[in-house]
Design goal:
168 residues, mainly alpha, Diphtheria Toxin Repressor, domain 2, 2 domains, elongated
Length: 168
Amino acid sequence: MTEEEEEEFEGPSKSQRKRDMQALKDLAQRLVELSSEQLEAIEDTRVRESVLAAKKITKGNARKRQLQYTAKLMSKIDVTPMQLIIDELDASSAVHIQKFHQLEVFRARLIEGDKNAMDEFLTLYPTTNRQQLRQLIRAAQQETEQHPEQKVQFRKLFKFLKAESEAG
């Protein structure tokens, strides 16, 4: 490359722009797969409405055009919050795995009787029903002491923690 050619360069190549747009289309497709409640987390109203419109369209080409339009809207804004929503719900993502492990650690600490664990969890998720949490902890502790091979209460406690973390 000569110096003149280097000065003329003004951004990503056409191929890179195509890859970026395809990534936005893929993100739009993933957003369409979310429930309406999960879509409420999207702050940009135009993008949210576009995704909701795409959910209603069942014909192939019309849906494809709507997804392209959604991707175009997303190209003008920061899509990081939307990507985080997808990552939290995607079981293969690092964010989801980390959250899952954190809940498993909380469950283990709660069953062991760690008082700090309950305080930490309630600080992170203040809307948690404390009484129900205590009941589930007690039931899981009793189950572990009396029937260590059974894991019914153990799983119920985890489901409760997971539901609270998603709600909070």
